[in-house]
Amino acid sequence: MTIPLQVAFKGMEPSPALEDRIRERAARLERFADRILRCHVTVEAPHRRHHQGNLFAVRVAIDVPGGQVVVTHDNPQDHAHEDAHVAVRDAFAAAVRRLEDHVRRLDGDVKQHDPAMLRGQVTRFVAGEDYGFIRTQDGREVYFHRNAVAQGGFDRLRVGDHVHATVAEGEKGPQATTVRPVGEGHAGG
Question: May I have one GO cellular component term (predicted)?
Fold first, then answer.
């Protein structure tokens, strides 16, 4: 299966050679995950104000069941990234590591009997439905249902509210099993 791929260049002319390199790297992603829905790569040319080398920034966003794996590679200390091809190589290497981690979580290789309590922020609700999504501090989007919200507080939650969530891997990706607004449910406070 060929991964649907979008390539964008910002602040620079499109480079056929660089786009070919990106396509090669994206095709290799299937070795690490067979459930990739889409991949979007952005290569951004540096602003031309620096006295030293101008470094390229590369963002790789991979849509997979249960979320999105995103890598933004723009290390200001890595002067090898004055070469866009090197910046692409390094961004894809980091994306592979994150993709492997994601696949391990989905396949159950990560302990699930020890759900993690994370801090996050409510990002959206699905209109007319009894569920929404939280963006955790580690950047994951986590599904939550009305029944997971402590003390029947679903209707009091608003987009932007900070919450603590107990997160476990569900059939379709990360899912909050308990959601508690920050500041509620603490002894003595």
Answer: cytosol
pLDDT in tens, 125-154: 987 888 999 998 877 888 999 988 988 889
Sequence ranges of the domains in the chain: 5-106, 116-181
Residue 18: what are its φ and ψ, rounded to 5°? Answer: -70, -40
C-beta of residue 62 within 8 angstroms of C-beta of residue 99 = yes
Euclidean distance between CA atoms 67 and 177, whole angstroms: 17
Task: Specify the amino acid at residue 101.
Answer: D
pTM of the model: 0.54
Q: Which of 170, 187, 186 is nearest to 115 (CA)?
A: 170
- SS3 label, residue 16: helix
| Superfamily of the domain at 116-181 | Nucleic acid-binding proteins (2.40.50.140)
Domain 5-106 belongs to what topology?
A: Double Stranded RNA Binding Domain (3.30.160)
Instruction: Give every residue of the chain whose pLDDT is below 70, as ranges.
Output: 1, 47-53, 74-81, 106-116, 184-189
